Protein backbone atom coordinates (compact mmCIF):
# COMPACT_ATOMS: atom_id res chain seq x y z
CA UNK A 1 0.00 0.00 0.00
CA UNK A 2 1.24 3.55 -0.60
CA UNK A 3 -0.11 6.93 0.50
CA UNK A 4 -0.77 7.70 -3.15
CA UNK A 5 -4.40 8.05 -4.19
CA UNK A 6 -6.32 8.36 -7.46
CA UNK A 7 -9.41 10.54 -7.64
CA UNK A 8 -12.13 9.74 -10.15
CA UNK A 9 -14.64 12.41 -10.98
CA UNK A 10 -17.73 11.16 -12.83
CA UNK A 11 -20.37 13.36 -14.43
CA UNK A 12 -23.44 13.30 -12.22
CA UNK A 13 -21.57 12.37 -9.05
CA UNK A 14 -21.07 15.25 -6.59
CA UNK A 15 -18.07 13.68 -4.91
CA UNK A 16 -14.86 12.41 -6.52
CA UNK A 17 -14.29 8.73 -5.83
CA UNK A 18 -11.02 8.22 -3.92
CA UNK A 19 -9.13 5.10 -5.00
CA UNK A 20 -6.14 3.69 -3.10
CA UNK A 21 -2.89 2.96 -4.99
CA UNK A 22 -0.63 0.04 -4.05
CA UNK A 23 2.96 -0.63 -5.10
CA UNK A 24 4.62 -4.01 -5.60
CA UNK A 25 8.34 -4.79 -5.28
CA UNK A 26 8.86 -3.83 -8.94
CA UNK A 27 6.47 -3.13 -11.80
CA UNK A 28 3.45 -0.87 -12.22
CA UNK A 29 1.46 0.39 -9.23
CA UNK A 30 -2.15 -0.78 -9.06
CA UNK A 31 -5.31 1.23 -8.44
CA UNK A 32 -7.85 -0.45 -6.17
CA UNK A 33 -11.14 0.03 -8.02
CA UNK A 34 -13.31 -1.92 -5.57
CA UNK A 35 -15.08 1.30 -4.35
CA UNK A 36 -16.56 1.75 -7.86
CA UNK A 37 -19.28 -0.86 -7.41
CA UNK A 38 -20.57 0.97 -4.31
CA UNK A 39 -21.02 3.96 -6.63
CA UNK A 40 -22.81 1.86 -9.24
CA UNK A 41 -19.91 1.37 -11.65
CA UNK A 42 -17.80 -1.54 -12.92
CA UNK A 43 -14.45 -1.27 -14.68
CA UNK A 44 -14.46 -2.52 -18.27
CA UNK A 45 -11.31 -4.27 -19.52
CA UNK A 46 -12.05 -7.08 -22.04
CA UNK A 47 -9.10 -9.48 -22.17
CA UNK A 48 -7.77 -7.98 -18.91
CA UNK A 49 -5.17 -5.87 -20.74
CA UNK A 50 -4.92 -3.43 -17.81
CA UNK A 51 -6.17 -5.56 -14.93
CA UNK A 52 -4.14 -7.04 -12.07
CA UNK A 53 -6.30 -9.94 -10.92
CA UNK A 54 -4.24 -10.87 -7.88
CA UNK A 55 -1.09 -10.29 -5.85
CA UNK A 56 1.71 -12.77 -6.57
CA UNK A 57 5.39 -13.25 -5.78
CA UNK A 58 6.16 -16.08 -8.18
CA UNK A 59 7.03 -14.56 -11.59
CA UNK A 60 7.61 -11.05 -12.85
CA UNK A 61 7.57 -9.95 -16.50
CA UNK A 62 8.68 -6.56 -17.83
CA UNK A 63 7.19 -6.67 -21.33
CA UNK A 64 8.86 -3.43 -22.40
CA UNK A 65 12.35 -4.61 -21.50
CA UNK A 66 11.88 -8.30 -22.31
CA UNK A 67 12.57 -9.36 -18.72
CA UNK A 68 11.32 -12.60 -17.11
CA UNK A 69 12.14 -13.32 -13.45
CA UNK A 70 11.20 -16.43 -11.47
CA UNK A 71 11.27 -15.53 -7.75
CA UNK A 72 13.63 -12.71 -8.83
CA UNK A 73 16.06 -14.83 -10.85
CA UNK A 74 16.36 -14.04 -14.61
CA UNK A 75 15.25 -16.88 -16.90
CA UNK A 76 18.50 -16.61 -18.85
CA UNK A 77 20.58 -17.38 -15.71
CA UNK A 78 18.24 -20.19 -14.63
CA UNK A 79 18.30 -21.78 -18.11
CA UNK A 80 22.09 -21.58 -18.11
CA UNK A 81 22.87 -22.74 -14.58
CA UNK A 82 19.87 -24.58 -13.13
CA UNK A 83 17.62 -27.46 -14.17
CA UNK A 84 13.88 -28.05 -14.37
CA UNK A 85 13.35 -29.78 -11.01
CA UNK A 86 15.40 -27.11 -9.22
CA UNK A 87 13.21 -24.49 -10.93
CA UNK A 88 10.10 -26.44 -9.81
CA UNK A 89 11.34 -26.26 -6.20
CA UNK A 90 12.06 -22.52 -6.58
CA UNK A 91 8.64 -21.76 -8.06
CA UNK A 92 6.69 -23.77 -5.49
CA UNK A 93 8.67 -23.08 -2.29
CA UNK A 94 9.94 -19.58 -3.16
CA UNK A 95 13.65 -20.25 -2.63
CA UNK A 96 16.49 -22.19 -4.25
CA UNK A 97 16.98 -25.60 -2.57
CA UNK A 98 20.16 -26.51 -0.71
CA UNK A 99 21.96 -29.56 -2.10
CA UNK A 100 20.20 -31.72 0.49
CA UNK A 101 16.79 -30.16 -0.21
CA UNK A 102 17.31 -30.69 -3.95
CA UNK A 103 18.26 -34.34 -3.48
CA UNK A 104 15.23 -34.91 -1.24
CA UNK A 105 12.92 -33.16 -3.73
CA UNK A 106 14.23 -35.24 -6.65
CA UNK A 107 13.66 -38.39 -4.59
CA UNK A 108 10.13 -37.25 -3.71
CA UNK A 109 9.31 -36.63 -7.36
CA UNK A 110 10.73 -40.02 -8.33
CA UNK A 111 8.53 -41.67 -5.67
CA UNK A 112 5.42 -40.41 -7.48
CA UNK A 113 6.27 -40.97 -11.17
CA UNK A 114 3.99 -44.01 -11.62
CA UNK A 115 0.25 -43.61 -12.16
CA UNK A 116 -2.43 -45.94 -10.76
CA UNK A 117 -2.88 -48.95 -13.04
CA UNK A 118 -6.57 -48.05 -13.39
CA UNK A 119 -5.52 -44.87 -15.22
CA UNK A 120 -4.35 -46.90 -18.21
CA UNK A 121 -7.94 -48.09 -18.70
CA UNK A 122 -9.11 -44.50 -19.34
CA UNK A 123 -7.04 -44.42 -22.51
CA UNK A 124 -9.01 -47.30 -24.07
CA UNK A 125 -12.04 -45.03 -24.37
CA UNK A 126 -10.22 -42.65 -26.72
CA UNK A 127 -9.80 -43.05 -30.49
CA UNK A 128 -6.17 -43.81 -31.35
CA UNK A 129 -6.12 -40.66 -33.51
CA UNK A 130 -7.54 -38.41 -30.78
CA UNK A 131 -5.56 -35.20 -30.30
CA UNK A 132 -3.29 -35.85 -27.29
CA UNK A 133 -4.42 -32.58 -25.67
CA UNK A 134 -7.99 -33.92 -25.66
CA UNK A 135 -6.73 -37.05 -23.91
CA UNK A 136 -4.69 -34.99 -21.43
CA UNK A 137 -7.75 -32.92 -20.49
CA UNK A 138 -9.53 -36.20 -19.74
CA UNK A 139 -6.90 -38.20 -17.91
CA UNK A 140 -5.54 -35.33 -15.80
CA UNK A 141 -9.06 -34.43 -14.73
CA UNK A 142 -9.64 -38.10 -13.94
CA UNK A 143 -6.71 -37.99 -11.50
CA UNK A 144 -9.13 -36.12 -9.22
CA UNK A 145 -10.99 -39.42 -8.79
CA UNK A 146 -7.93 -40.93 -7.13
CA UNK A 147 -7.04 -38.01 -4.89
CA UNK A 148 -10.15 -36.32 -3.60
CA UNK A 149 -11.30 -37.47 -0.17
CA UNK A 150 -7.70 -37.71 1.04
CA UNK A 151 -6.62 -34.18 -0.01
CA UNK A 152 -7.07 -31.46 2.62
CA UNK A 153 -6.59 -28.16 0.79
CA UNK A 154 -6.04 -26.34 4.09
CA UNK A 155 -3.02 -28.54 4.86
CA UNK A 156 0.32 -27.26 3.43
CA UNK A 157 1.77 -30.78 3.40
CA UNK A 158 -1.22 -32.11 1.41
CA UNK A 159 -0.81 -29.23 -1.05
CA UNK A 160 2.92 -29.97 -1.41
CA UNK A 161 2.18 -33.67 -2.00
CA UNK A 162 -0.41 -32.75 -4.63
CA UNK A 163 2.17 -30.56 -6.38
CA UNK A 164 4.81 -33.30 -6.25
CA UNK A 165 2.33 -35.90 -7.60
CA UNK A 166 1.41 -33.62 -10.50
CA UNK A 167 5.01 -32.71 -11.42
CA UNK A 168 5.91 -36.41 -11.22
CA UNK A 169 2.94 -37.91 -13.05
CA UNK A 170 2.26 -35.40 -15.81
CA UNK A 171 5.23 -36.58 -17.97
CA UNK A 172 4.11 -40.19 -17.47
CA UNK A 173 0.60 -39.32 -18.66
CA UNK A 174 2.01 -37.28 -21.58
CA UNK A 175 4.18 -40.16 -22.76
CA UNK A 176 1.17 -42.51 -22.39
CA UNK A 177 -0.76 -40.24 -24.79
CA UNK A 178 2.00 -40.62 -27.37
CA UNK A 179 2.36 -44.38 -26.91
CA UNK A 180 -1.42 -44.83 -27.16
CA UNK A 181 -1.47 -42.93 -30.47
CA UNK A 182 1.30 -45.22 -31.78
CA UNK A 183 -0.37 -48.41 -30.61
CA UNK A 184 2.73 -49.18 -28.56
CA UNK A 185 2.70 -50.39 -24.93
CA UNK A 186 3.06 -47.81 -22.20
CA UNK A 187 6.61 -47.52 -20.82
CA UNK A 188 6.99 -47.32 -17.05
CA UNK A 189 9.02 -44.46 -15.53
CA UNK A 190 12.66 -45.30 -14.85
CA UNK A 191 13.79 -43.63 -11.65
CA UNK A 192 17.45 -44.16 -12.50
CA UNK A 193 17.05 -41.43 -15.12
CA UNK A 194 16.80 -37.67 -14.62
CA UNK A 195 13.47 -35.98 -15.28
CA UNK A 196 14.00 -35.11 -18.96
CA UNK A 197 15.78 -38.38 -19.80
CA UNK A 198 12.99 -40.36 -18.11
CA UNK A 199 10.41 -38.51 -20.23
CA UNK A 200 12.30 -39.20 -23.47
CA UNK A 201 12.70 -42.84 -22.44
CA UNK A 202 8.96 -43.21 -21.76
CA UNK A 203 8.31 -41.62 -25.16
CA UNK A 204 10.72 -43.58 -27.33
CA UNK A 205 11.83 -46.84 -25.73
CA UNK A 206 9.98 -50.07 -26.58
CA UNK A 207 10.01 -53.56 -25.02
CA UNK A 208 12.00 -54.79 -28.01
CA UNK A 209 14.89 -52.33 -27.89
CA UNK A 210 16.49 -50.14 -25.26
CA UNK A 211 16.46 -46.44 -25.98
CA UNK A 212 19.79 -44.68 -25.51
CA UNK A 213 19.07 -41.15 -24.28
CA UNK A 214 21.20 -38.63 -26.19
CA UNK A 215 22.53 -36.25 -23.49
CA UNK A 216 22.21 -33.27 -25.85
CA UNK A 217 18.55 -34.17 -26.40
CA UNK A 218 17.98 -34.58 -22.65
CA UNK A 219 19.56 -31.19 -21.94
CA UNK A 220 17.47 -29.58 -24.68
CA UNK A 221 14.32 -31.23 -23.30
CA UNK A 222 15.12 -30.02 -19.77
CA UNK A 223 15.75 -26.53 -21.14
CA UNK A 224 12.39 -26.57 -22.96
CA UNK A 225 10.69 -27.62 -19.72
CA UNK A 226 12.42 -24.71 -17.92
CA UNK A 227 11.46 -22.11 -20.54
CA UNK A 228 7.74 -22.96 -20.37
CA UNK A 229 7.48 -23.46 -16.59
CA UNK A 230 5.67 -20.30 -15.56
CA UNK A 231 4.65 -16.96 -16.98
CA UNK A 232 2.67 -14.84 -14.47
CA UNK A 233 -1.12 -14.54 -14.98
CA UNK A 234 -1.40 -15.91 -18.55
CA UNK A 235 -4.70 -17.32 -19.77
CA UNK A 236 -4.20 -20.88 -18.53
CA UNK A 237 -2.76 -19.85 -15.15
CA UNK A 238 -5.64 -17.42 -14.64
CA UNK A 239 -8.00 -20.29 -15.49
CA UNK A 240 -6.40 -22.49 -12.82
CA UNK A 241 -6.65 -19.68 -10.26
CA UNK A 242 -10.31 -19.05 -11.09
CA UNK A 243 -11.18 -22.76 -10.88
CA UNK A 244 -9.20 -23.09 -7.66
CA UNK A 245 -10.93 -20.06 -6.11
CA UNK A 246 -14.14 -22.11 -5.84
CA UNK A 247 -12.32 -24.82 -3.86
CA UNK A 248 -12.31 -27.29 -6.76
CA UNK A 249 -10.10 -30.38 -6.67
CA UNK A 250 -6.55 -29.31 -7.72
CA UNK A 251 -6.24 -32.04 -10.39
CA UNK A 252 -9.47 -30.75 -11.94
CA UNK A 253 -8.02 -27.21 -11.80
CA UNK A 254 -4.92 -28.35 -13.68
CA UNK A 255 -7.15 -30.04 -16.28
CA UNK A 256 -8.88 -26.67 -16.70
CA UNK A 257 -5.46 -25.09 -17.27
CA UNK A 258 -4.64 -27.70 -19.92
CA UNK A 259 -7.91 -26.87 -21.66
CA UNK A 260 -7.12 -23.14 -21.77
CA UNK A 261 -3.53 -23.77 -22.91
CA UNK A 262 -4.67 -25.79 -25.96
CA UNK A 263 -5.81 -22.78 -28.01
CA UNK A 264 -3.57 -21.59 -30.90
CA UNK A 265 -3.50 -18.09 -29.42
CA UNK A 266 -1.82 -19.57 -26.31
CA UNK A 267 0.07 -22.83 -25.86
CA UNK A 268 -1.26 -24.27 -29.12
CA UNK A 269 0.91 -21.74 -30.99
CA UNK A 270 3.96 -24.03 -31.01
CA UNK A 271 2.04 -26.67 -32.97
CA UNK A 272 0.49 -23.98 -35.19
CA UNK A 273 3.90 -22.36 -35.72
CA UNK A 274 5.54 -25.54 -36.98
CA UNK A 275 2.56 -26.22 -39.25
CA UNK A 276 2.97 -22.65 -40.56
CA UNK A 277 6.71 -23.14 -41.21
CA UNK A 278 5.94 -26.39 -43.06
CA UNK A 279 3.25 -24.57 -45.11
CA UNK A 280 5.76 -21.84 -46.01
CA UNK A 281 8.17 -24.65 -46.84
CA UNK A 282 10.91 -22.57 -48.45
CA UNK A 283 12.67 -19.27 -47.84
CA UNK A 284 11.40 -18.02 -51.21
CA UNK A 285 7.82 -17.93 -49.85
CA UNK A 286 8.58 -15.97 -46.67
CA UNK A 287 7.66 -12.56 -48.10
CA UNK A 288 4.29 -13.91 -49.31
CA UNK A 289 3.38 -15.00 -45.78
CA UNK A 290 4.65 -11.81 -44.15
CA UNK A 291 2.37 -9.91 -46.54
CA UNK A 292 -0.56 -12.16 -45.58
CA UNK A 293 0.11 -11.55 -41.85
CA UNK A 294 -0.16 -7.79 -42.48
CA UNK A 295 -3.34 -8.06 -44.57
CA UNK A 296 -6.34 -7.08 -42.43
CA UNK A 297 -8.59 -9.08 -44.76
CA UNK A 298 -6.55 -12.23 -44.22
CA UNK A 299 -7.09 -14.01 -40.87
CA UNK A 300 -3.55 -15.44 -41.14
CA UNK A 301 -1.19 -14.45 -38.34
CA UNK A 302 2.47 -15.28 -37.91
CA UNK A 303 2.25 -18.01 -35.27
CA UNK A 304 4.97 -17.70 -32.66
CA UNK A 305 4.98 -13.92 -33.11
CA UNK A 306 3.50 -11.25 -30.88
CA UNK A 307 2.57 -11.30 -27.22
CA UNK A 308 0.08 -9.66 -24.91
CA UNK A 309 2.83 -8.55 -22.53
CA UNK A 310 6.16 -8.61 -24.38
CA UNK A 311 6.52 -5.54 -26.60
CA UNK A 312 10.19 -6.45 -26.91
CA UNK A 313 11.86 -9.79 -27.59
CA UNK A 314 10.58 -12.67 -25.42
CA UNK A 315 13.74 -13.65 -23.49
CA UNK A 316 12.68 -17.28 -23.75
CA UNK A 317 12.79 -17.07 -27.56
CA UNK A 318 16.44 -16.03 -27.39
CA UNK A 319 17.36 -19.03 -25.22
CA UNK A 320 15.20 -21.32 -27.38
CA UNK A 321 16.93 -20.15 -30.56
CA UNK A 322 20.33 -20.93 -28.97
CA UNK A 323 19.05 -24.37 -27.98
CA UNK A 324 17.81 -24.86 -31.54
CA UNK A 325 21.27 -24.02 -32.90
CA UNK A 326 22.88 -26.50 -30.47
CA UNK A 327 20.53 -29.41 -31.21
CA UNK A 328 20.63 -28.96 -34.99
CA UNK A 329 24.44 -28.65 -34.91
CA UNK A 330 24.66 -31.84 -32.84
CA UNK A 331 22.50 -33.56 -35.43
CA UNK A 332 24.56 -32.12 -38.28
CA UNK A 333 21.39 -30.38 -39.49
CA UNK A 334 22.34 -26.72 -39.13
CA UNK A 335 21.02 -26.28 -42.66
CA UNK A 336 17.60 -27.64 -41.61
CA UNK A 337 15.22 -26.06 -44.17
CA UNK A 338 12.56 -25.18 -41.58
CA UNK A 339 15.17 -23.53 -39.37
CA UNK A 340 16.33 -21.50 -42.36
CA UNK A 341 12.72 -20.52 -43.10
CA UNK A 342 12.26 -19.51 -39.44
CA UNK A 343 15.45 -17.42 -39.42
CA UNK A 344 14.45 -15.66 -42.69
CA UNK A 345 10.89 -15.14 -41.44
CA UNK A 346 12.14 -13.64 -38.18
CA UNK A 347 14.53 -11.30 -40.02
CA UNK A 348 11.88 -10.22 -42.53
CA UNK A 349 9.30 -9.53 -39.83
CA UNK A 350 11.67 -7.68 -37.52
CA UNK A 351 12.68 -5.36 -40.37
CA UNK A 352 9.10 -4.75 -41.47
CA UNK A 353 7.34 -1.49 -40.42
CA UNK A 354 4.10 -3.33 -39.55
CA UNK A 355 5.80 -5.56 -36.98
CA UNK A 356 8.01 -2.78 -35.71
CA UNK A 357 5.08 -0.41 -35.20
CA UNK A 358 2.97 -3.09 -33.47
CA UNK A 359 5.99 -4.28 -31.43
CA UNK A 360 5.60 -7.87 -32.60
CA UNK A 361 8.59 -10.10 -31.78
CA UNK A 362 9.17 -13.86 -31.75
CA UNK A 363 7.78 -15.48 -28.60
CA UNK A 364 8.64 -18.71 -26.83
CA UNK A 365 6.69 -20.74 -29.40
CA UNK A 366 8.60 -19.56 -32.47
CA UNK A 367 11.64 -21.87 -32.23
CA UNK A 368 10.40 -24.50 -29.78
CA UNK A 369 8.65 -26.51 -32.49
CA UNK A 370 11.84 -26.86 -34.53
CA UNK A 371 13.72 -28.18 -31.49
CA UNK A 372 10.93 -30.59 -30.55
CA UNK A 373 10.72 -31.85 -34.14
CA UNK A 374 14.50 -32.40 -34.12
CA UNK A 375 14.07 -34.48 -30.93
CA UNK A 376 11.63 -36.69 -32.84
CA UNK A 377 8.51 -35.43 -31.08
CA UNK A 378 5.43 -35.24 -33.36
CA UNK A 379 3.78 -31.84 -33.85
CA UNK A 380 0.56 -32.98 -32.16
CA UNK A 381 2.54 -33.50 -28.93
CA UNK A 382 4.06 -29.99 -28.82
CA UNK A 383 1.36 -28.41 -26.67
CA UNK A 384 1.34 -31.49 -24.44
CA UNK A 385 5.01 -30.78 -23.75
CA UNK A 386 4.07 -27.20 -22.90
CA UNK A 387 1.43 -28.53 -20.46
CA UNK A 388 3.98 -30.87 -18.85
CA UNK A 389 6.27 -27.93 -18.23
CA UNK A 390 3.60 -25.43 -17.14
CA UNK A 391 2.06 -27.76 -14.55
CA UNK A 392 4.54 -26.50 -11.93
CA UNK A 393 3.57 -22.91 -12.70
CA UNK A 394 -0.12 -23.69 -12.48
CA UNK A 395 0.10 -25.60 -9.19
CA UNK A 396 2.45 -22.99 -7.68
CA UNK A 397 -0.09 -20.23 -8.41
CA UNK A 398 -2.90 -22.46 -7.15
CA UNK A 399 -0.95 -23.06 -3.92
CA UNK A 400 -0.14 -19.35 -3.53
CA UNK A 401 -3.84 -18.49 -3.83
CA UNK A 402 -5.24 -21.35 -1.69
CA UNK A 403 -2.71 -20.76 1.09
CA UNK A 404 -3.93 -17.18 1.56
CA UNK A 405 -7.43 -15.94 2.48
CA UNK A 406 -9.20 -15.52 -0.87
CA UNK A 407 -12.65 -14.99 -2.39
CA UNK A 408 -14.19 -16.88 -5.29
CA UNK A 409 -13.39 -15.08 -8.56
CA UNK A 410 -16.57 -13.56 -9.97
CA UNK A 411 -16.11 -10.93 -12.75
CA UNK A 412 -19.10 -8.76 -13.76
CA UNK A 413 -20.18 -7.54 -17.24
CA UNK A 414 -21.48 -4.73 -19.40
CA UNK A 415 -24.98 -6.03 -20.16
CA UNK A 416 -26.20 -5.21 -23.68
CA UNK A 417 -29.07 -7.70 -23.91
CA UNK A 418 -32.83 -7.03 -23.71
CA UNK A 419 -34.21 -4.93 -20.88
CA UNK A 420 -36.90 -6.66 -18.77
CA UNK A 421 -39.95 -7.55 -20.84
CA UNK A 422 -43.09 -9.71 -20.37
CA UNK A 423 -43.74 -12.93 -22.19
CA UNK A 424 -46.38 -12.36 -24.93
C1 LIG B 1 1.88 -17.85 -25.34
O1 LIG B 1 0.19 -14.70 -21.92
C2 LIG B 1 1.27 -15.42 -21.92
O2 LIG B 1 2.18 -15.19 -21.14
C3 LIG B 1 1.29 -16.56 -22.92
C4 LIG B 1 2.60 -17.33 -23.00
C5 LIG B 1 2.89 -18.12 -21.75
O3 LIG B 1 4.06 -18.47 -21.54
O4 LIG B 1 1.91 -18.46 -21.02
O5 LIG B 1 3.68 -16.46 -23.26
C6 LIG B 1 2.54 -18.37 -24.13
O6 LIG B 1 0.70 -18.02 -25.46
C7 LIG B 1 2.67 -17.05 -26.34
C8 LIG B 1 1.79 -16.46 -27.49
C9 LIG B 1 1.57 -17.59 -28.49
N1 LIG B 1 0.58 -17.16 -29.52
C10 LIG B 1 0.98 -16.94 -30.77
O7 LIG B 1 2.15 -16.93 -31.15
C11 LIG B 1 -0.17 -16.69 -31.74
C12 LIG B 1 0.14 -15.48 -32.62
N2 LIG B 1 0.10 -14.28 -31.80
C13 LIG B 1 -1.11 -13.55 -31.71
O8 LIG B 1 -2.29 -14.24 -31.91
C14 LIG B 1 -1.11 -12.45 -30.66
O9 LIG B 1 0.09 -11.81 -30.78
C15 LIG B 1 -1.34 -12.83 -29.22
C16 LIG B 1 -2.57 -13.63 -29.05
C17 LIG B 1 -0.17 -13.61 -28.70
C18 LIG B 1 -1.47 -11.53 -28.43
O10 LIG B 1 -2.64 -10.95 -28.81
P1 LIG B 1 -3.12 -9.54 -28.21
O11 LIG B 1 -2.25 -9.07 -27.12
O12 LIG B 1 -4.57 -9.64 -27.94
O13 LIG B 1 -2.79 -8.55 -29.38
P2 LIG B 1 -3.76 -8.31 -30.54
O14 LIG B 1 -4.30 -9.61 -31.06
O15 LIG B 1 -4.71 -7.26 -30.14
O16 LIG B 1 -2.76 -7.74 -31.66
C19 LIG B 1 -2.39 -6.39 -31.63
C20 LIG B 1 -2.21 -6.05 -33.11
C21 LIG B 1 -3.43 -6.43 -33.95
O17 LIG B 1 -3.47 -5.54 -35.05
P3 LIG B 1 -4.52 -4.29 -34.93
O18 LIG B 1 -5.88 -4.90 -34.67
O19 LIG B 1 -4.02 -3.44 -33.78
O20 LIG B 1 -4.40 -3.61 -36.27
O21 LIG B 1 -1.10 -6.82 -33.63
C22 LIG B 1 -1.59 -7.70 -34.65
C23 LIG B 1 -3.09 -7.81 -34.49
O22 LIG B 1 -3.70 -8.07 -35.73
N3 LIG B 1 -0.93 -8.99 -34.40
C24 LIG B 1 -0.43 -9.78 -35.34
C25 LIG B 1 0.11 -10.87 -34.66
N4 LIG B 1 -0.07 -10.73 -33.35
C26 LIG B 1 -0.74 -9.57 -33.20
N5 LIG B 1 -0.38 -9.66 -36.69
C27 LIG B 1 0.22 -10.67 -37.35
N6 LIG B 1 0.79 -11.77 -36.77
C28 LIG B 1 0.75 -11.89 -35.43
N7 LIG B 1 1.30 -12.96 -34.84
Tags for this entry?
single chain; 424 residues; three-stranded antiparallel sheet; 18 helices; globular
Could you give the order of the helices and strands?
EEEHEEEHHHHHHHHHHHHHHHHH
Overall outline: globular
Q: What proportion of the residues is helical, as a percent range?
A: 40-55%
Uncertain segments are none
What's the arrangement of strands in the largest beta sheet? 1-2-3
Q: What Rg, in angstroms, do the CA atoms define?
A: 23 Å
Question: Count of helical segments?
Answer: 18
List all distinct small molecules, including ions and cofactors, that are bound in this structure.
s-citryldethia Coenzyme A
Count of extended strands? 6
Amino acid sequence: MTDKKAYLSIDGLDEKIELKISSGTIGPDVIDVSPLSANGYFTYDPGFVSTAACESGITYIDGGKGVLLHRGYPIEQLADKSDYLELCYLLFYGKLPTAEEKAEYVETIQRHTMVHEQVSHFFNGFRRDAHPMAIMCGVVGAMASFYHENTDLTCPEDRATTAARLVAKIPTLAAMCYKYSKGQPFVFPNNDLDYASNFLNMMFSTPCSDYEVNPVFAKAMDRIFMLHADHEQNASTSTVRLAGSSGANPYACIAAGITALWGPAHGGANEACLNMLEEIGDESRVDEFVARAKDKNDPFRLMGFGHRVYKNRDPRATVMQKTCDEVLAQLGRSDDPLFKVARKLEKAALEDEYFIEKKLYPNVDFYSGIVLRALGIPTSMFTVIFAVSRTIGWISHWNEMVSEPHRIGRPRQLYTGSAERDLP
